[in-house]
Amino acid sequence: MPTQPDPAVPLTDQGTNMPAKPENILVECVGAAHTYGSGRTAVVAVHGVNALITSGTQVALTGPSGSGKSTLLHMMAGLVPATSGSLTWPAWGGPPLEAAGRIGIVFQGPSLLPALNVIENVAFPLLLADVSGRVARNYASDALKTLGLTDLAQQLPETLSGGQAQRVAVARVLACAPELILADEPTGQLDHQAAALVIDVLLRASEELGAALVISTHDPLIARRLPQQWTMRDGAMLAPGAGLSPAAVAS
Ligand code: ADP
Ligand code: MG
To answer: Is residue 17 in some structural domain?
Structure first.
């Protein structure tokens, strides 16, 4: 029997009587919900989510399109508020937007700045965090190399394929060495080989940086590369393993 709670399970299954140390809790969701709009047009995108992201968490967030994965990731990043329940970042003492560089998010849709070339895009968040231009460029260059994108460094985003742009967005997160990496369907536009590389890179970065990693995907083949799987349906978090077939989880 393990003596410590598994850092990467929804609170519903972990119980609240064995809390992780507060300094290790990056994100804590208790009954967290988000509703877009109001009245007749209200959409309950996320509801009743209990989840704990600690510095050891590596988790795949699975579920069909529309189940609330992106909304929950944006909530964890502090970009979308909880409209009910609570969402806190105990290790940082407040919303992560006030703690620059601690969270890196790979957005599901296009997110590169069109006027900047690839290496400038990757270096940009570092410049915002007051890193010097030369150092930022070195980090950006290393991150591009890790993802096999060095040849694209001088290109503008409009010249990239969707898959290339997605990998640049991953490089941009890695260059910042965040404490929490939230990757929203980072392989959605990639072929099998490129997808495998991106997952390898994210897992390795998470281990080398000691960063928590949450990857949303609707692909069970990607999900089972992560040690834990959480599954969403209609905005709610299911119990661990409930959304994937036993064969998919085990193989
Ligand atoms: P997923 O990432 O799993 O596809 P989303 O979080 O994008 O799920 O969406 C969850 C639900 O919220 C869906 O019904 C979607 O249509 C709705 N939704 C997402 N974004 C918005 C928005 N900005 N305004 C209104 N409804 C939204
Ligand atoms: Mg999504």
So the answer is: no
Determine the Cα–Cα distance for residues 84 and 101; give it in Å rounded to an integer.
Answer: 27
Q: How far is the CA of 71 from the centre of ligand 1 (A)?
A: 6
CATH classification at residue 163:
3.40.50.300
Whether residue 16 is contained in a domain is answered as no
Q: Which of 85, 84, 88, 95 is nearest to 38 (CA)?
A: 84
Residue 220 CB neighbours (<10 A)? 17
List residues near ligand 1 (CB under 6 A): 36-37, 43, 45, 63, 65-71
Number of domains in the chain: 1
Is the pTM of the predicted complex or chain greater than 0.70? Answer: yes
At 165 the pLDDT is: 95
Q: Which domain holds residue 140?
A: 23-250
User: Which of 1-5, 38-42, 179-183 has the lowest average pLDDT?
Assistant: 1-5
- Give pLDDT tens digits for 188-213: 989 999 999 999 999 999 999 999 99
In a domain, 211, yes or no: yes
